[in-house]
């Protein structure tokens, strides 16, 4: 699914009005009615107090339409007009008039702190103050109102966007932002819904298709995509009945050191679980017995070093090399990576200590085969590209780095971002249970396996990140977040692949 900017959405809006020959008021009615339907489906007429905070632009207009439908269906609604300006939009005004037709309870104007209502824990608050039209941070008494709503512990539903979030920049430390429990957003997800600095304001997310012009949307240029089941499925290559293990790639996994041999076991297990035809491991001697016993399906080659990697088997060929997990950053191991890079043209996946070695020995970056995949977590990324001012700056810096060295970078996190030159793919699977030792090792095994099986490295990264998150979701659904171990993620990769073909999960269950 494409992620669109406020400007692109405004253009889509304009084209839709022309092509469908409808007024903007009709489009607002359509969009807000869809929101009403979602609320009605969930509340089923429950007599809970609903407090709707409407701005004076079109986000507020949406709030008024929602209020009208809720009142007509017998809900207990109080409407507040948050009157931060007297420049009310035309569609707001039209719906203000329509509201009068269904209730005698006049909307209450809020113009200053004294006008704030009481908000109780059991209230259902609808935030329709600002949407994509926000053009400066929320300050002053408006910020106090946002704080009051946030502190109320009421359930907060944000319309289109939590008020205070911009679609294209970070609001800043001292700006007020609604912290929603649920966001119903129109037509396309906005980038800020997925960034570490802003994702917590969104709560659960559901995108409502409000019927903007299909042709315009499909032709619109966006280089940022949200990757869910549908996008992952489109990348998947089915196995042929008439095939053999030679068709599914030979993955070589290079890593480990004394006390960190388990990381290689996790990577290798996940590579085989993702379907590699053959998997070889290159490790220091101390890990030999553990790996041969722990994963009899893998072949094990040992380095001369007892406890550290110090070289690379020069005449070894494989379809992909995965380097770094548990390897440490000793000088011998730096030289082993140098030797590996000088002697291989296979595409590579570099993770963990492999990344730390690259950060400290930047000349090695130029030796990496083009289109190799790097999988840093935020700490490793900072060592690799330096610090960033905010998440937008981070994305720009990662794009520059990707372009400069011709690499695909997976920036791991709650929503992992795969960045390949100009393109950005945001993953929408996974859960906090995956914040556990070794889960990154499992991810590098999945990506390496897919590259070995013939996937383009960027497709392997995008599909691999999705499958890894989905396997984590399956594990968590069985045993709970706290108990998920990295090995459980590896174990469920097969089910994650099978689930690509299941009926799609509702958007609101994922964020
Ligand atoms: N195609 C679409 O995407 C549709 C959008 N609609 C709604 O329209 C919204 C956008 O409406 P608007 O463009 O009227 O903008 P908003 O309603 O988001 O904001 C209203 C106005 O507030 C002012 N403002 C901005 N920041 C402020 C601040 N910090 N303090 C005080 N005033 C500030 C600006 O002049 C802005 O135009 C969307 O978010 C959505 O809810 C829907 O009605 C239907 C269709
Ligand atoms: N809250 C979360 N939601 C979704 N995925 C997560 C979350 N926390 C961690 N993950 C995923 O788990 C993996 C953690 O990787 P990493 O930090 O390298 O772990 P390790 O170094 O222990 O292997 C990443 O793929 C990341 O995207
Ligand atoms: K809003």
UniProtKB/TrEMBL annotation:
InterPro entries: Carbohydrate_kinase_pred_CS, CARKD, Nnr, Ribokinase-like, YjeF_N_dom, YjeF_N_dom_sf
Cofactor: K(+); Mg(2+)
A Pfam entry, by short name: YjeF_N
EC number: 4.2.1.136, 5.1.99.6
Binding site residues for AMP: 412-416, 440
All residue ranges annotated as the YjeF C-terminal domain in the record: 228-500
Any one GO MF annotation of this record: metal ion binding
Positions of K(+) binding: 59, 127, 163
Catalytic activity: (6S)-NADHX + ADP = AMP + phosphate + NADH + H(+); (6S)-NADPHX + ADP = AMP + phosphate + NADPH + H(+); (6R)-NADPHX = (6S)-NADPHX; (6R)-NADHX = (6S)-NADHX
Cofactor remark from the record: Binds 1 potassium ion per subunit.
Protein origin, superkingdom: Bacteria
BP GO annotations: metabolite repair; nicotinamide nucleotide metabolic process
Residues annotated as binding (6S)-NADPHX: 58-62, 131-137, 160, 326, 377, 441
UniProt entry keywords in alphabetical sequence: ATP-binding, Isomerase, Lyase, Metal-binding, Multifunctional enzyme, NAD, NADP, Nucleotide-binding, Potassium
Cited function: Catalyzes the dehydration of the S-form of NAD(P)HX at the expense of ADP, which is converted to AMP. Together with NAD(P)HX epimerase, which catalyzes the epimerization of the S- and R-forms, the enzyme allows the repair of both epimers of NAD(P)HX, a damaged form of NAD(P)H that is a result of enzymatic or heat-dependent hydration.
Family statement: Belongs to the NnrD/CARKD family. Belongs to the NnrE/AIBP family.
HAMAP family given in the database record: NADHX_dehydratase (MF_01965), NADHX_epimerase (MF_01966)
Quaternary structure (record): Homotetramer.
Name under which the protein is recorded: Bifunctional NAD(P)H-hydrate repair enzyme
């Amino acid at each position: 699914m494409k992620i669109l900017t406020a400007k692109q959405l405004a253009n889509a809006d304009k084209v839709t009005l022309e092509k469908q020959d409808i007024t903007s008021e009709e489009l607002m009615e359509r969009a807000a009615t869809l929101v009403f339907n979602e609320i009605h489906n969930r509340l089923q007429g429950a007599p809970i107090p609903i407090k709707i905070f409407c701005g004076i632009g079109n986000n507020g207009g949406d709030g008024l339409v929602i209020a009208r439908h809720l009142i007509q269906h017998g809900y207990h609604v109080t409407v507040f007009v948050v009157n931060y300006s007297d420049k009310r939009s035309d569609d707001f005004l039209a719906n203000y008039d329509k509201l009068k037709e269904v209730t005698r309870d006049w909307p209450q104007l809020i113009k200053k702190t004294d006008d704030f209502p009481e908000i109780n824990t059991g209230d259902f608050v609808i935030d329709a103050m600002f949407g994509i039209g926000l053009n400066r941070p929320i300050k002053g008494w408006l910020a106090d109102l946002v704080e009051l709503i946030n502190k109320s512990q009421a359930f907060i539903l944000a319309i289109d966007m939590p008020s205070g979030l911009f679609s294209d920049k970070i609001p800043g430390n001292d700006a007020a932002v609604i912290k929603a429990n649920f966001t119903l957003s129109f037509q396309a997800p906005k980038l800020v819904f997925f960034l570490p600095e802003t994702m917590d304001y969104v709560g659960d997310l559901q995108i409502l298709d409000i019927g903007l012009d299909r042709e315009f949307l499909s032709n619109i240029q966006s280089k940022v995509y949200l990757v869910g089941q549908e996008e992952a499925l489109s990348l998947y290559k089915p196995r042929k009945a008439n095939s053999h293990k030679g068709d599914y790639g030979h993955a070589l996994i290079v890593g480990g050191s004394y006390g960190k041999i388990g990381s290689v076991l996790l990577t290798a297990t996940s590579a085989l679980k993702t379907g590699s035809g053959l998997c070889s491991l290159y490790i220091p001697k101390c890990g030999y017995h553990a790996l041969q016993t722990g994963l009899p399906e893998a072949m094990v080659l040992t380095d001369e070093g007892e406890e550290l990697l110090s070289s690379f088997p020069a005449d070894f060929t494989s379809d992909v090399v995965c380097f770094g997990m548990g390897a440490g950053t000793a000088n011998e191991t730096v030289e082993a990576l140098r030797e590996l890079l000088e002697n291989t043209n296979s595409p590579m996946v570099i993770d963990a200590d492999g990344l730390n070695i690259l950060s400290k020995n930047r000349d090695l970056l130029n030796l990496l085969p083009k289109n190799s995949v790097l999988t840093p977590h935020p700490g490793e990324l900072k060592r690799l590209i330096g610090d960033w001012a905010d998440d937008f700056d981070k994305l720009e810096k990662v794009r520059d780095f990707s372009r400069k060295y011709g690499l695909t970078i997976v920036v791991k996190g709650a929503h992992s971002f795969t960045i390949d030159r100009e393109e950005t793919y945001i993953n929408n699977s996974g859960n906090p249970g995956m914040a556990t030792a070794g889960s990154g090792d499992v991810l590098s095994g999945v990506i390496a396996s897919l590259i070995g099986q013939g996937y383009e490295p960027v497709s392997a990264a995008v599909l691999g990140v999705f499958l890894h998150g989905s396997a984590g979701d399956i594990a968590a659904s069985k045993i709970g977040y706290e108990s998920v171990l990295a090995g459980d993620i590896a174990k469920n990769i097969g089910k994650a692949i099978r689930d690509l073909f299941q009926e799609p999960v509702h958007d609101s269950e994922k964020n």
